[in-house]
Amino acid sequence: MWGLRSYLKPYLKFMILAPIFMMMEVFFDLLQPTLAAHIVDFGIVDRSFSVIERTGFTMLAVAGLGLVTGVLCNVFASRASQNFGADIREALFTKVQTFSFENVDTFKSGSIMTRMTSDVVQVQNLLQLGLQGLVRAPSLLIGSVVMALIINLRLGLILLGTLIVLIAVLVVLIRFSTPIFSTVQSKLDAVNTRIQENLAGIRVVKAFVRTGYETRRFREVNLEYTQVSIRAARFIALNSPVVTLIMNACLVTVLLYGGNQVSIGSVQAGDLVAFVNYVVQVLSSLIMVSALLMNVSQAGVSAKRIQEVLATRPHIEDAAPQKGLSLPGRQVKLSQVCFSYNGSSDPKDLVLQNINIEAGRGETVAIIGATGSGKTSLVQLLPRLYDVTSGSIQMDGQDIRGLPLLELRRRIGMILQESFLFTGTIRDNIAFGKPEATQAEVEDAAKTAQAHDFISRLPGGYDTMLGQKGVNLSGGQKQRISIARALLVKPPILIMDDSMSALDSKTERQLRSALSHVMKDTITFLIAQRISSVVDAQEILVIDEGAVAGRGTHEELMKSCGVYQEIYRSQFGKQEVPYVG
């Protein structure tokens, strides 16, 4: 928790006021047993109704003041804790936005979700309880012990001995419970990850009739989480009974010894009543302290997990902003680029090896190869979604690792292999990269992407609401909206990662024709599976097992590249390739 103290500073005022009001409430609670003793000794014993009446109204007034101060403490504690939790969630979300794909792969999305929800709730609740219980319980405990010692020293020593035993028991419980709470959160990560994975692939699960298999996989992680949670719950369940047992034993001892002292006249009956009340207050405060200490143990684990995210340095380090940066995006050059996902330079780990590409304004570089050959990995290096392991990538003669990420990515439009659409209107999705775009600009981009006609036929047109991931559109429709989204920002460099795979031949032909007019000054990197999509590219790069197997035009590769010829034969046999330009 100490590492998160900077998020408490804005709410320091509430954090001061809450304990002040809580200590006032404790003060009023500590007065009650003394007032009760006064009624017994001077009202009941002396049979003075006026004393009973006067002291009774005083107790009501004290109780009312305790209620008011308790409510005020709760108000200020709630404001501090809720805002504290909101700030941490925002900080985590902001931090995750800076993560590279490597960082996200390291934590896993399910774990990040747990840290942003469950773990934040744990530390938020600890602050709420801390400003109340961690002030009330110790104050009430210390105050009750002091008042008990003042009433009768010998009875007070019995109480002190009991407290020492209780503290030892609580220390043992906390020591053994902390590792278990850490395991609970890890198992919860696994449950969340499995749920997210299943929901993301629910259509595949149903299509292949694998519901039973997925249910068994979930049952495994859920059972592990349940078993660990039960172990943790056992420690929590031990708290209250153990504390109650020891304190009740103390109470019985006090009553036996105190009753004997009253019978011989060494202790007044009212003092014994007050002492018993203080013992009860000690009991309630100890139950509260034991529960809070368990919360501290749980929240400590959660705070550590939160700090792990906040302290993580993005693998992709951003360069400092540059004034007067000239970056028109007219030339891209890859020199001896090698890449592995684990950062290793070992040849067996390399996904890409010694890639060299140079492209200028208006040129299209097509990249073709078998599935898993490294095509997508290659284009992900251009906007620095990953960094090269060795070699360099330059834009306009500048190494992209020395460019601010914001400036670099503003000049690159990406149409990803998976067309991801956000919940919202079609217009919002197309204008995602340029929210200030006019309706005319949105429609122009949609027309170029061959999306305007089908959008116009929808009941809501461009205001049609899309479900999660655009579930109410077909694959081809989603791809065209994704293409329109990239075209709207008019990037000088465009990456199309197999982004026409769901289009029929006619629509693809129309789209490529439209793109040739509006993107004539753009550097285009085109990944495709179909040779018919790349035949008119100025340069075709054939990737095989992470290395360049051939480069040139379609005609050149048909004469010189065996891998390209094999791809051609698998798609067309001995037919001539249909031209789609």
Report on this structure.
By secondary structure, this protein is α/β, with parallel strands linked by helices. Helices cover 62% and strands 11% of the residues. It contains 17 helices and twelve strands. It has helices at 12-44, 49-97, 101-107, 109-151, 153-200, 202-207, 211-263, 269-311, 375-380, 405-410, 426-430, 439-448, 452-457, 475-488, 505-518, 554-560, 562-572; strands spanning 331-339, 352-360, 364-369, 390-395, 398-399, 412-415, 424-425, 465-466, 493-497, 523-527, 539-544, 547-552. It has a six-stranded mixed beta sheet with strand order 6-9-10-3-11-12. A hairpin with a 2-residue loop joins β11 (539-544) and β12. α5 packs parallel to α8 (269-311). The longest helix has 53 residues, at 211-263. It is elongated and about 115 Å long. The model has no long low-confidence stretch (mean pLDDT 84).
Helix content: 55-70%
Elements, N to C (H/E): HHHHHHHHEEEHEEHEEHHHEHEHEEEHH
Sheet with the most strands: spatial strand order: 6-9-10-3-11-12
Rounded Rg: 35 Å
Number of DSSP strand runs: 12
Most strands sheet: 6 strands, mixed
Distance between the termini: 62 Å
Structural class: alpha/beta
Number of helices: 17
Unreliable segments of 5+ consecutive residues = none
Overall pLDDT score:
84
Broad shape:
elongated
Oligomeric state, counting identical vs distinct chains:
single chain
- Name the beta content range: 5-15%
